[in-house]
Design goal:
With about 375 residues, the chain is an alpha+beta fold. It has eleven helices and twelve strands. The strands form three sheets. A five-stranded antiparallel β-sheet has the order 2-1-5-4-3. The protein has a five-stranded mixed β-sheet with strand order 7-9-10-12-11. It has a two-stranded antiparallel ribbon with strand order 6-8.
Length: about 375
Amino acid sequence: MQTTLPTMFAPAERASDSEIKSAHRALSDTPFLTAILDSLATGIVMLNRERQIVLANKGLLKLVQESDPSKILGKRLGEAIQCIHAFETAGGCGTTEFCKTCGAAKAVVSSIDGKADVQECRITLKPAGESLDLRVWATPFIIHNAPLTIFAIMDISDEKRRKVLERIFFHDILNTASGLKGFAELLKEADSGEAGQYQATIFSLSRMIVDEINSQRMLVMAENNELTLTPSEVSSLELLRNIADLYRTHEVAKDRSVTVDPQAQDTKLTTDRTLLLRVIGNMTKNALEACKPGETVTIGCTVHKEQVQFWVHNPNEMPRDVQLQVFQRSFSTKGSGRGLGTYSIKLLTERYLKGSASFVSGKDGTTFKVAYPVSI
């Protein structure tokens, strides 16, 4: 066994290479076992008590895009799949703070303790930053007197996408459309004094519906690599003022304020204006939703050499468990199935605009930041 390593969740220690090879030979010499596992399309691995892979079926090799099974022996699942957090510590997969929220890590630990478990988890992959939504099953299993875990994986990304879209279109948009219909009916019966008030509300509701549909359309195109960039020259300060003006009258800003930081710098950058507006608009909207009545969201811009950084600040601290899952697909700060704001920020920024997305959150509030080159 290795020297004890620090961990923030599961033990970091690993079996030796000779122990891994011995376990692999024992399992490989059980033909019925390997035949059964390879007949299943689901990705399946056998894990030792140190959570290391000692056998993988063809479905798992296909998932990790590896033709040589020896290349993943001894690795932990996150390391084989290339989870971005699996390489942050010397202990590897299962030992970071993020692993506390990982369904896969929790299921394996439960199985090692002798309890079968089923969980869902979201894994962001390196180096592309793409995300997988997985359903996993971990079952204790003893063979040749060795305690193991049978770990099965199913990619449910399409299922999660469908559920999110159903939630948005069949719930949120339907609610907004119902409100629009109600005010349109009131407008029919309104006198001239009431008409102006109803017209403003109808316009606001109509804008919300169109904006939500466009957001989802853009996200689907982005994930399918179908977006085409249209670069143009953009003034950073003008962009911020436009966003502040837009969201001051947005429904989400009711009893809240949006202001442009007086120290915000003005510079020219060449980028896709529509995508940039979408990103910073999402940041602003999320910040407003995180605010309490009477609070203010501040947006700003700073220039560092060849990079332009936009930031959006709200005065509230995010709970730590939320911080650990920000930017993951299918996770929303607004609750289960409620939007894709932070994920789309990272996707559009890093895949299309050649930038980076990050955040900090503490007692002084939460600030989301995106940084871009002055020209794409």
